[in-house]
Fold this protein.
Amino acid sequence: MSGRGLARLVPVVVLLAAGLTACGGSDADPPAATPSADGDAVAVTVTRDKDTFTPNGERVELGIGQTLKLTVTADEAGEFHVHSTPEQEIAYDEGTSEHDITIDRPGVVEVESHDPASVVLQLEVR
């Protein structure tokens, strides 16, 4: 490509890059997974409002043997199934509760609700 053609492309690339940057999330949308105060765990908050979960299917990175500190705020009691080996079940009550999950094998592990049916988290364990 000639220098002249390249010079015409530079403004287009700059505009596209600026447009993509503008599409990113704002500071008002915090990530679902954050390091916890103890530094070794990952903290995630899950909210159940009627039959809707937030987050919904989000992938969270977790180290082998690292603790996931799960805070559940729910408008009614329920249960999560952690499809790890061995499988784990997490019963939660209406209100706010905290639960620790540790996975000792690499892979992607789904945390789901069967009633209502929803994949709440995907734990990518490395």
Observations:
- Residues 80 and 114 are 7 Å apart (CA to CA).
- The first strand starts at residue 33 and ends at 35.
